[in-house]
Amino acid sequence: MKLLTLNTHSIIDESYDDKIKVFCEAIIKYEPDVIALQEVMQPITGEKAEKEELLKGLGQIPVKSGNFAYSVLKCLEKHNLNYRGVYFGLKKAYDKYDEGLAVLSNKEINATEITQLTKFNDYNNWKTRFSLGVRIGEYWFYSLHFNWWDDGDSSFQDEWVRLQETLRSKKRVWLMGDFNVTPRSQGYELITKAYFDTYMLAKDIDNGITVRGKIDGWEKSPLDKRIDYIFTDGNVRIKSSKTIFNSKTEEMISDHFGVLVERE
């Protein structure tokens, strides 16, 4: 089983089509079974997507034709790859985009789950956070994007507690995304009380860095850092954990690298 997570930071700009192509080609190359995406943008004023069977919209915001995940799925369809997905739009970004979470898979999605992580649900508040979970066979996979540990409006710790309430009865769970915590931080220690970091379990790893220098939200942290992860609730055998879209493997298409994990 191969898993991929990426904070796409998919702002639609002049290089948007190139980003879609690079991402699509990487999926063809690596063939991940499940893909968790964060910061998935679509134009607020965009038209509703035609092929609803490719990317199912959850919640009140429909999937629109310029949606990053939808565009990727259309590309994969042209290459005869049978990926499908779900999208949950949750807030406004940069005054002209819907921003949301997505999970794509080449296997049938049997169930979905949306959980509000912030105490507020405000489309106009950029700190609004939800989790998007899907069940595929016996496993649950979650696409996640947390706020920071000490955020005054909604802290990582509070959001983590809310997530655990919905996960309490589940087993064979995989948590994938942008956690906005670094190793050896309070947030990381909280997570690893209950979950295993697949990077630490992997036999074959790289340096693990997922962000270079300063990015939005980390302006005071000039060092390279690892803030994107795939955690699991079992001490499973992991063959490898590598970053992609890092300019060494594939071109960078976001301010984050993707994390690709292969289970034995």
Summary of the model, kept short:
This protein has helices spanning 16-30, 68-78, 156-167, 186-191, 198-201; strands spanning 2-7, 34-43, 55-58, 84-93, 97-105, 111-116, 130-136, 139-145, 173-178, 196-197, 202-205, 228-232, 238-244, 258-263. The protein is an alpha/beta fold.
Description:
This protein is of the alpha/beta class and 264 residues long. It has a single domain (2-263), classed as Endonuclease/exonuclease/phosphatase (Deoxyribonuclease I, Chain A, 4-Layer Sandwich). The protein contains five helices and 14 strands. The protein has helices at residues 16-30, 68-78, 156-167, 186-191, 198-201, and strands at residues 2-7, 34-43, 55-58, 84-93, 97-105, 111-116, 130-136, 139-145, 173-178, 196-197, 202-205, 228-232, 238-244, 258-263. An eight-stranded mixed beta sheet has the order 3-4-5-2-1-14-13-11. Strand 3, helix 2 (68-78) and strand 4 (84-93) form a beta-alpha-beta unit. Helix 1 crosses helix 2 (68-78). The model has no long low-confidence stretch (mean pLDDT 95).
Large-scale geometry: globular
CATH architecture grouping: 4-Layer Sandwich
Arithmetic mean pLDDT:
95
Unreliable stretches: none
Largest sheet geometry: 8 strands, mixed
Name the CATH homologous superfamily.
Endonuclease/exonuclease/phosphatase
Number of β-strand runs: 14
Overall helicity: 10-25%
Strand order of the largest sheet: 3-4-5-2-1-14-13-11
Fraction of residues in β-strands: 25-35%
Q: Topology as H/E string?
A: EHEEHEEEEEHEHEHEEEE
Structural class: alpha/beta
End-to-end gap: 7 Å
Overall tally of structural domains: 1
CATH class: Alpha Beta
Report Rg.
Answer: 17 Å
- Count of helix runs: 5
